[in-house]
Amino acid sequence: MPKSDMPPGALTLLILRVLQSGSLHGYAIAQRIHVLSSEVLAVEEGSLYPALQKMLLKGWVTAEWGISETNRKVRFYRLTVAGRKQLQAEISNYDRVTDAIQAILRTA
Prior knowledge:
The chain is α+β, with helices and mostly antiparallel strands. Helices cover 57% and strands 15% of the residues.
């Protein structure tokens, strides 16, 4: 199957949601999104790490160095209280927009 493009703004929502279950390093975040989407969504490094950096600056996640399961030095990202609040805001906005699009698709 061809790779599907992620809708604009979805990456932040997906990263926050995946981190809600616990801290992960960048590659693990990308892999989890890929697996949970039934391998439809692929997160490229060129998108993932800038998004994580923005989330760090906004205080939605924290990061600390650790060792991965493959014995490499990596940064583990963890959701903050502000990140949990932002996740709820992102989910609400996503639901609102999705409902609006579905209404148009049903009635147009």
